[in-house]
Amino acid sequence: MQKIFGITLMSVALFSCGSYLLYKAKPSHKKQSRVTVDLDGACDENSYLTYGSSLLPNKPYIEKTEDLAANRDQDFLVVKKNQRLHDILSIYDISVHEIMALTKALSPYVRAKDLGVGDLYKVKLKNDRPGSLECFTIKKLDPNRLPITYEAKAVEVGFSVSLSSPKTELEDAYIRLKVKETLFASFKALPYGNELMQRLMNVFAWRMRMPEQVNKNDEIELVVTKIFALGEFIGYGPIKSVIYKKPQQTSQAFYYSSTDGKVNGYFDESGRSLEKEMMLSPVKNTTATSNQELRLHPVIKSRIRHNGIDFRGTIGTDFFAIADGEIIEKRFDKNVGNMIRIRHKKGVHSEYFHADSLVNKLDVGDFVRRGQKIGEIGRTGRLCTGPHLHLGLYVMHGEKRKYIDFKSLRKKLADMPMLSGAHAKEFQELTKKSLSFIQAEREKGEPTLAING
User: Fold this and answer.
1) Residue of 292, 311, 280 whose CA lies nearest to 201
2) Distance in angstroms (rounded) separating the CA atoms of residues 101 and 408
3) Angle at 404 between CA 206 and CA 418, to 5 degrees
4) 166-275+426-453: what fold?
5) Pairing of strands 159-164, 147-154
6) Considering only the top CATH level, what class is 34-164?
7) Among 447, 446, 449, residue whose Cα is nearest residue 190
8) pLDDT tens digits for 105-129?
9) For the whole model, what pTM was predicted?
């Protein structure tokens, strides 16, 4: 009986397996997917680094070799899912040697694995040499959603790569919202609202615990710079002014950069600085993309603690020392790339990883000032998956580093000085103009982007 039962069970398993294989072998009659990337904010927060510029909305994937042949030297084509540079060029009978030369030329700007679904490309072959490239062009969004064109032209040996991007246009916008549920829910209704929320939280970070101290019915008014490229909204610049109204209190903040270049930052209406001696971000006008937390590391595929904050940025973007201090380490590390460590007051240290370059004239033992440029954002090091800056904060326990966060420094750090003299006078003129702009927008009735969370 046991033998009969075993044979029956095996027969059922084989039949099920065979049916599955036959099902998978059937030709698919699904319609071709289409790639659409909306630059006005419809693309989701986790996908904008992957999706390309897609200047050809709703363009279908081109699946067949004959379709490719018909489009040679004409239109841009769209990168498909799991399609890599080698896959694209092999269809054109480009040699492995030439693909490797192109990959090497592009590598400082776009690595082969950086091509993502929705990126655009164009292949131009030499008329007198079939299967040989004259020019290869890629269009994709940089981390700040600015469309960049990378053009690789064949030269005597290898390829020469040039970059171009459209001019950006700036516009001051007035935004008013009333919190009905949570701060996150309220800002989520705005295009790229999470980024704007982060910037608001940074304005009041040393004075207010956000979002914990945000309450229902709080009212927020913002004046912020909006950035446009090719007529499309691609993100926010700095917040210029904020009025935050609670039932028992109104807080104001104004961004001020002195004409002599000696002072910049956020101040309240009386000229009192809202910042501490340590800056919250080493990069201007950016967004944190990863915090201090346990996470699945994208390279080593293990769940480990991320001891720092990652800041989004394009290769070559300046980054700055977050506070006065002495450089104690500056070198290249195979895992974290070009890195620099600085010792500050009260035993606090900061570290900066994955730099494209570090300022040459700076060396170990040199003293740097708060806000002084120390390098440029890159993607160096084995553990780096894309352009960004990693910032870590730590104190030493013997010979070991104990990583900390900014919250633990709230009461330890000194406030930046209050404005005085010519700076105070210049600041008051700025606040008058800003408040006049806000009042004029209020009188228009419905604000530019009014939402109710």
Assistant:
1) 280
2) 50
3) 25
4) Nuclear Transport Factor 2; Chain: A, (3.10.450)
5) antiparallel
6) alpha beta
7) 449
8) 998 888 877 888 889 999 999 987 8
9) 0.76
